[in-house]
Amino acid sequence: MSNKTLAEVRALPVDSKFQSVGLVTELKEKRDKNDKPYWIMSVMDKSGALDAKIWGNAQWFDLKDGVKKEIAEPAASPLVRNLKGETVGLIGSITEFKGKPQYQFNQIWLVDQEREEYRPAAFIRAAGVPVDRLEAEFWQFVDSCGGEAGEFLRFVFQPDSATWQAFRTFPAAVAHHHAYLHGLLEHTLGVARSARAIAQSYQGTAYEPDLDVVVAGALLHDLGKLDTYALDPGPESTLEGTVLDHIATGYARFVRLADEFKLTPLTRTLLGHIILSHHGQKEFGSPVLPATPEAMIVAAADNLDFYLNSWHGSVEQLDGGMEADRAISDFDFSTQRRLWKWRPEQPR
């Protein structure tokens, strides 16, 4: 039995068995009605993620030093308790529960992460577009932006800075949308692309949005996610992310940078307003509502990119296995709807 990617595992029918390798992003120990331990393990590879149950009769093995050793009492083992961020080999099976596939890991192998094929970087899910293409498009946006807003962008995003290195790497969320390596960069570009197109469509009208402010606002709108998310090894919220959220941290970071750059009051207020209002509604976390054409455009583009990525993530789960003939996703809590894969014969 050869190793399958997690996407290939999700496409298998019920009653299948599989072998795979993944990076542990979460492991929760539970207790059954007889007070026996079982686990829910989340793993990922570059193709996606998978949650599976590990029952008490599963076998655990330590293969880290090349010698197979059974872990007889996994609930008491520090190796198991500290498994997050570790690469594991998996042998599992698929059953059906309430009409849905349920994944089980029946054997778990702890492997040596120093070996090239087991290094964590080989299993971290990333944006579907190569990062060099994303970076090239980002710098095109920066170069195209003129005036003081453009100069400020070039000050904030200096190629060798820690800010840029984090911005190109971080996820845009822990769940819901763009929750993977380079997700923040991919999402920011989606927003900037849409926002500029919308703004250009209104050139020559009474609204006449400022293109430089729109582009700069789009590229800066999620700056706070540098303080609220991390990769450890998968996307996680920081303490600030949990108790402050990215709009607050983004505005605070923007103010520090604006002070350092000595941004003029008008540009400072225009860009700061976009950061504070980009969720569009107070109930979605924005302390103020968009009050300029530029802020309205960025908020609309941000919302659209969120919905489109959520749509893609939901319908992607319908490819293969029991779900292959379905066109409607399960209820998606982030968008509060079920989503339609309107061409089910064409996997996306």
Write up what this structure looks like:
This protein has 12 helices and 12 strands. It has helices spanning 6-10, 78-81, 131-144, 147-156, 162-169, 183-201, 211-220, 225-228, 239-243, 246-261, 265-277, 293-316, and strands spanning 3-4, 17-31, 37-45, 48-54, 59-62, 69-70, 87-97, 100-110, 229-231, 235-237, 328-332, 337-340. The strands form 3 sheets. Strands 1, 2, 3, 4, 5, 6, 7 and 8 form an 8-stranded mixed beta sheet that branches. Strands 9-10 form a two-stranded antiparallel sheet. The protein has a two-stranded antiparallel sheet with strand order 11-12. β11 (328-332) and β12 (337-340) form a beta hairpin. α7 crosses α11, α10 runs antiparallel to α11 and α11 runs parallel beside α12 (293-316). The radius of gyration is 23 Å and the shape is elongated.
Which terms would index this structure?
348 residues, alpha+beta, 8-stranded mixed beta sheet, two-stranded antiparallel ribbon
What topology emerges from the helices and strands here?
Elements: E1 3-4, H1 6-10, E2 17-31, E3 37-45, E4 48-54, E5 59-62, E6 69-70, H2 78-81, E7 87-97, E8 100-110, H3 131-144, H4 147-156, H5 162-169, H6 183-201, H7 211-220, H8 225-228, E9 229-231, E10 235-237, H9 239-243, H10 246-261, H11 265-277, H12 293-316, E11 328-332, E12 337-340
Parallel strand pairs: 1-2, 5-8
Antiparallel strand pairs: 2-3, 2-7, 3-4, 5-6, 7-8, 9-10, 11-12
Distance between the termini: 27 Å
Which sequence of SSEs, written as H and E, runs from N to C? EHEEEEEHEEHHHHHHEEHHHHEE
Strand content: 15-25%
Shape: elongated
Number of strands: 12
Mean pLDDT: 92
The helix tally amounts to 12
Characterize the largest beta sheet: strand count, sense, and whether it forms a barrel: 8 strands, mixed
What Rg do the Cα atoms give?
23 Å
